[in-house]
Amino acid sequence: MKEQLEQRLQKLKNEFASGKKMIADLKAKQKNLHQTLLRIQGAIQVLEEEITKIEEDDFAETLDFSKNKVESLKNLVQPIHQTIAQEQSSTNKLTSKNSPQG
């Protein structure tokens, strides 16, 4: 009987040691996984910041392009506007010369 109890005791001690080793291994894996997740989180943050920066740069370039486009259109429209104003002035002078004075 004593021998059976000692065998059972030894089995339990072996299982206990095996369980402690498994817990230590799982804790090490958990630590490694946590560190990996932190690195991934950092990489995500960097990529999000880079994407935001690119979007801001693209938006700024679009605004600059739009500003240049508006300036170009102003440069095209201004001479036309001046021509129209001159023609209206000439027309007004002609009509005032031809109109009877009261």
β content, as a range? under 5%
- Helix residue percentage: over 70%
Ends: how far apart?
Answer: 143 Å
Given the C-alpha coordinates, what overall shape results?
rod-shaped
Number of strands: 0
- Multimeric organization: single chain
The secondary structure category is: mainly alpha
Q: What would you report as the Rg, rounded to the nearest angstrom?
A: 43 Å
Number of helices: 1
Primary descriptors:
mainly alpha, 95% helix, 102 residues, single chain, 1 helix
Q: How would you characterize this protein structure?
A:
The termini are far apart. It is built from one helix and no strands. It has one helix spanning 2-98. The chain is mostly helical.
Topology:
Layout: H1 2-98
At a glance:
This protein is mainly alpha-helical and 102 residues long.
